[in-house]
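REVIEWER CHECKLIST
Item 1: Sequence provided? yes
Item 2: Single chain? yes
Item 3: Sequence as submitted:
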Amino acid sequence: MAQYAACPAFQLGRPRYDQSTFLGRLRHFVAIIDPSTLFVSEKRLRECVKLLDDFQHGTLPPGVTDLQLWEAQKVKQAIIHPDTGEKIFMPFRMSGYVPFGTPIVVGLLLPNQTVVSTIFWQWLNQSHNACVNYSNRNATKPTPTSTFLQGYFGAVTSAVSLAVGLNVLIQRANRLSPATQIIIQRLIPFPAVASANICNVGLMRHNELSEGIDVLDGNGNVVGSSKIAAKHAIMETAFTRVVLPMPIFVLPPIIMSYLEKLPFLQMNRRLLLPIHSLVCLATFSLSLPLAISLFPQMSQIEVSQLEPEIAMATNSKVVTYNKGL
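Item 4: Structure as written out by the authors:
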């Protein structure tokens, strides 16, 4: 019984852990963002895909365990987009978000930013975010390149404008002490990034609101396209993208403001950047799975809440849709 609980019977296309609970979703996404999947070889990926195909067609070789099947599905889900069936470019996979995003976070939180450095790091961050959003979008409907560019430039503009504007205001706030100004300046990236993330998701995926996204019945069959489900998907994703940067851009400045006062670090200033980087890496690694676990990737919605044509097309009371990440 203990072995069964640790490794449940394999179900193709279904999560290993219960997605109706936060803990189950957390365990699921910890597996999805596992950086070790970045090093999976092409041969290993083909083996995983073949193993899952064999399971689907009932031609599994003898001796294959449920654990092997779950691991094969983990590798496939981490690398291949569930809608397009194509490989996601390594830096834009969710498993690459922390390794490739941490240096950008460190840059955004560097003290004594100039206008040029603020613009550069905000641009780089939004460029990375835009590519991650696009690569992990709901792709049941084609997205024009113009929509991607619109979202990208909108996010960059909002992030840079807010970050530079807040920096200028703080520098002109003579009533604040120099120490307070430094702390507030370090916190500026959060509102800039959070607002840009909302702009990015909204602009890049607004076509889903007009065209709808596919909703699936209990057997995985497409019932139809729903604009209401698209609205839910975008709102859930946008909320996640606001929660995600909160600990990343708030905790490190607070932690570093205390660490920098330690006599050891005051005597060894060269260690500040490595320690700052480790603090950013730790907060990023913890906050990413927590944020994306707020909602299931394959979310469910009652048919009664959707368009009448959806209700007429299925006998199911609940349908699912790919929220995107």
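Item 5: Key structural point noted by reviewer: The two ends are 34 Å apart (CA to CA).
Item 6: Recommendation: ____
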